[in-house]
Amino acid sequence: MLLQRLFGRASRTADPRDALRPLWHRIVQIARDPVFYRDDKVADTVAGRFDMITVVLSIVLLRMERDRVLARESALLTELFVEDMDGQLRESGVGDMVVGKRMGRLVSVLGGRLGALRGALAEREGTALEQALARNVTLNEADGAASLACRLRAFADKVAALDSKALLAGDLAS
Question: What is the pTM of this model?
Answer without folding.
Answer: 0.85
